[in-house]
Amino acid sequence: MNATDTYKTLANPSPEILFKEKNSKFFGYAFPVTTETEIKLHLEQLRKQHYGAVHFCYAFQLGTEQVYFRANDDGEPSNTAGMPIYGQIQSFGLTNTLVVVVRFFGGVKLGVGGLISAYRTAAQMALEEAEIIEKTIDIHFQILFEYKNMNKVMRVIKEKNIEIIDQQMNESCAIEIATRKKNAEMIFDIFTNIFEIEIKKL
Hints:
Elements: E1 6-10, E2 17-21, E3 24-32, H1 36-49, E4 55-62, E5 68-72, H2 82-91, E6 97-104, H3 111-129, E7 132-136, E8 138-146, H4 150-159, E9 163-169, E10 172-180, H5 181-192, E11 198-201
């Protein structure tokens, strides 16, 4: 089977983990996310929760085919926090994932190597505590047809086990469906070949 239409992400936010290194405390969190707005909300929430922490370092990756990522050191020396965290997202093979490590400084400097190791470990621990799930990359289509053709459309949806996302049934009907990427072309062709039915990719 071609695995290009699946991706791995988190089922739920991970439980909080704590990693200690020379009196510094590193709290690690992992969240499933799909938008930058969600990421901002998680960060705001953690800033309220850990009032007094010095650094809120994080990395995220969004997207399945067009991948977008960012790593933020939040005041730590360049590339000592965000990139080691991002490296863990990559090594777990995840996307649509945010990992945040909150640091309370313990008075002892860790040095560049120590910081990289601490942030990487905290990120790894958070991801190890999270439940990782596999999801399919779905393509959404809209099917447009008149009410009299309803049975034809519903028969294909049932036979092919297609997920209905939204439907409006009036004189003219519109159904939004989602199908796995690997089946998308076949589904599109089936509906294209049915008389009086229009299908378009959303």
